[in-house]
UniProtKB/TrEMBL annotation:
Domain of life: Bacteria
Keyword field: Signal
Domain annotation Solute-binding protein family 3/N-terminal: ranges: 28-245
Family: Belongs to the bacterial solute-binding protein SsuA/TauA family.
Protein name (database record): Taurine transport system substrate-binding protein
Length: 330
């Protein structure tokens, strides 16, 4: 399990060894994905990325953004799907990456669920309870932001670092009282629990989160066409969903592909897709500017305040590149 401490300890060595670890060319690329339910999973299942880029793509599944960042930093992965919190932490540590697409603006797809019978009826009841969350994830950031909003000292809560699959196992054993996580672990927890707050609520309190596609800077410089085509396929999937959400999920085969890649139940896919917002190509060019830079700046400042990063960058502009989204529009 890659905890925040492990990530922090390994990173200097990883950055020193990036040249040795980075050997992929555009003809074979390793892409890290997570189990987030989103429209582009259909394109992934159908091999549309390979067709558009003409490259062999090795798709590797990860359970958390911290694990993805570790793989990107080492050079084992060239493109990865991460949340805004691990992205901000990585940028604060000067990992050589760029955000080239905002994949999803997170809403109800991530939430804090409390176990039935745990005695938690309101936020104040969280004191002394065991809450599981993947450290340095968007849900970790949202949990800390929610506790701050509720004026609850995090030290008064037992926050445990677990990956989503471990959260499910711990929940089934009755080892934890609550969890802030995403699907499929979220759906399994809701079977005998209730949502106390979602990331949609936390965003309204001033701590929005998002998922993003990032690329190693050196890979992007050598293979701009690959990144451009990757962005184009992704944005086409978002546009198809946005144009007709009901029609998109009415296709049983399409839904099954998403469920298979994410581990979610087919009957949950429609509601999970509704839980986030997927920016179109025209929206990307506006978002991938001051808005994303500000979000990374604010998130990094919060993480430093919470002791999760040692320092922050003077500017996060170099970690955001709208050029590939703009090229995809053309």
């Amino acid at each position: 399990m890659h905890t925040f401490t492990t990530f922090k300890r390994w990173l200097p060595a990883l950055l020193l060894g990036v040249t040795a670890g980075f050997a992929a060319a555009a003809d074979e690329v390793t892409v890290a994905y997570q189990t987030t339910v989103e429209p582009a999973k259909v394109a992934q299942a159908d091999g549309l990325y390979e067709k558009a880029t003409g490259s062999k793509i090795n798709w590797r599944k990860f359970e958390s953004g911290a694990e993805v960042i570790t793989a990107v930093a080492s050079g084992d992965v060239q493109i990865g799907y991460v949340g805004s919190s691990p992205l901000a932490a990585a940028a604060s540590r000067s990992v050589p990456l760029q955000t080239f697409l905002v994949a999803a603006q997170i809403g109800s797809a991530e939430a804090l669920v409390v176990r039935n019978g745990s005695g938690i009826a309101k936020p104040a009841d969280l004191a002394g309870k065991k809450i599981a969350v993947p450290f340095v994830s968007t849900t970790h950031y949202s949990l800390l932001a929610a506790l701050k909003h509720w004026k609850i000292d995090p030290a008064k809560v037992q926050i445990i670092n677990l990956r989503p699959s471990e959260i499910t196992a711990a929940w089934q054993r009755g080892d934890i009282d609550a969890a802030y996580v995403w699907d499929p672990a979220l759906g399994k927890a809701k079977e005998n629990g209730k949502i106390l707050v979602s990331s949609s609520d936390v965003a309204k309190w001033g701590a929005p989160t998002f998922d993003a596609w990032v690329v190693r800077k050196d890979f992007a410089e050598k293979n701009p066409k690959f990144v451009e085509q990757f962005a184009k396929v992704t944005l086409k999937a978002y546009a198809d969903y946005r144009a007709n959400p009901k029609g998109f999920v009415s296709d049983a085969a399409r839904v099954e592909k998403i469920a298979r890649l994410t581990g979610s139940k087919p009957e949950e896919v429609a509601s999970l897709l509704e839980g986030n917002s997927y920016p179109t190509a025209s929206e990307q060019t506006n978002i991938l500017g001051k808005a994303t830079v500000k979000a990374l700046t604010d998130t990094s400042a919060f993480l430093k305040e919470q002791g999760k990063v040692d320092s922050v960058q003077q500017s996060y502009a170099e970690y955001v590149n709208p050029g590939f989204a703009k090229s995809a529009v053309k």
